[in-house]
Amino acid sequence: MVNYIWVGMMVIGFVVAAINGNMDKVNEAIFTSAKEAVTLSFAMISILVFWLGIMKIAEKGGLLEVLAFLFRPIVKRLFPDIPPDHPALGYILSNMAANLLGLGNAATPMGIKAMEQLKILNGGKNEASRSMITLLAINTSSITLIPTTIIAIRMSYNSQSPTDIVAPTLLATGIATIGAILIDRFYYYRSLQKGGK
Amino acid sequence: MGFVQSFSIWFIPFLIGFILLYGTYKKVPTYETFVEGGKEGFSIAISIIPFLVGMLVAISVFRASGALDFVMVAMRPIFSLFHIPAEVVPLGLMRTISGTGALGMTSDLIATHGPDSFIGRLASTIQGSTDTTFYVLTVYFGAVGIKKMKYALKVGLLADLIGFLASIVAITILF
């Protein structure tokens, strides 16, 4: 499906640009965005190196197992495929905690690390496993306690109460996360029916 | 607000300090372990590059050509059928494909309608309640070399739609 969407976005883009007569903009967009992608990846190096270093200490000290143990009842239900006490669970929990606290740049390295562990669990295949998609679903709907960026923007536009969107955001993000988990379940069971035999 | 700000400022040093002290207590060679773990960060960032280049180029071609605007205009009647304010429809679409693009739109909506208006609050909630599905998908799967995403994209996109609708409901109920 990704292949079709990817080709679709490009080809439709070229056709629309031909009709609109702004092919020059599209040309420019190709090369600036390619450059932007590389810049973005390089900008991530510092964050990845730092947090993965710190998290390695947490892993070796056994902190991730403690975390996995504490939240075992919840995570066991969300990720039934992962054996208990597996380091992947510790990384998944760290990723969820970082998202919850609005620490986006700490959440990504931990999520990637969790994905790495899940890939090992899945026999190193280049195919997404059930747990990987669940983790992804939770991340795209990212439960947030404090949406710091938005609060900052609201403050800069002289809001009377910049933080009054915290409650609705929490409500919306909570519903989105629960929805994401349910949808994930639905497609998982459907994929079992379709190709499981 | 003061509390919220000082919380995020104090939390990271506290967390790092706790991990370091706990590691020391457990006799982990902390510095060497940090370096060892950090090394992986570099190769992960490099392996994301092709995934991110591919995805960002496609998204920006789609945007720059005007195709995205076309989709937004085309979808407006469907949304107005459900009494969804037309102003936030482009933001809802942008939110799933480009984080920086959505942030720009949110700032714009807040600037035009005022941060404490219905639209201003709604835009803030939409921005804060979901993450950029395409980006998360590209980075997380790209980092570990997952090429077959199976039903992941469908789940992410539907979750975005739920977050978008839930934001409207939440703002309507609470204000």
What would you say about this model in short?
The complex is a heterodimer of chains A (197) and B (175). Chain A is an all-alpha fold and 197 residues long.
- How much helix, percentage-wise, in residues of chain B? over 70%
Radius of gyration of chain A: 20 Å
SSE ordering of chain A: HHHHHHHHH
Protein structure class of chain A: mainly alpha
Helical amount among residues of chain A, as a percent range? over 70%
Count of DSSP strands of chain A:
0
- In DSSP terms, counting alpha (H) and pi (I) runs of 4 or more, how many helices of chain B? 8
Detail the poorly predicted runs of chain B: none
What is the tally of beta strands of chain B?
Answer: 0
Mean pLDDT of chain B: 87
Look at the structure and give the mean pLDDT of chain A: 87
List the total number of helices of chain A. Answer: 9
Topology order of chain B in helix (H) and strand (E) letters: HHHHHHHH
User: What overall geometry of chain A do the principal axes of the alpha carbons give?
Assistant: globular
> What characterizes the major β-sheet of chain A?
none
Content of β-strand of chain A: under 5%
Q: How much of the sequence of chain B is in beta strands?
A: under 5%
Note the gap between the termini of chain A. 22 Å
Largest two-chain interface: A-B, 106 and 98 residues
CA-atom Rg of chain B in angstroms: 21 Å
Oligomer: heterodimer
